[in-house]
Amino acid sequence: MSQATLQRRPLVKKILAGADDNLLVIAGLGSSNWDITNAGDRPLNMPLWGAMGAPVGMGLGLAIAQPTKRVLVITGDGDMLMSLGSLATVAAQSPDNLAICVLDNEKFGETGNQATHTSPRNNGPTDSGAGTDLAMIAKGCGIADCSTVTEKAEVSQLVKDLRGKKGPIFRLVKVMVEKLEFVMPPQDGAHLKDRFRQALLGNP
Amino acid sequence: MNDWRDDIFEVFQDHDIKQVYHVPDAGHSRLIEACQKSNSVRTMALTTEEEGIAIAAGAWLGGQRSAMLMQSSGVGNTINMVGLTKTLRFPFLTLITMRGDYGEFNSWQYPMGQGTPKVLEAMGMLLYSVDKAEDVKATVDAAARSAFHGGQSVAVLLRQKLIGIKTFGKK
Question: Does B64 sit within 8 Å of A57, measured CB to CB?
Answer without folding.
Answer: no
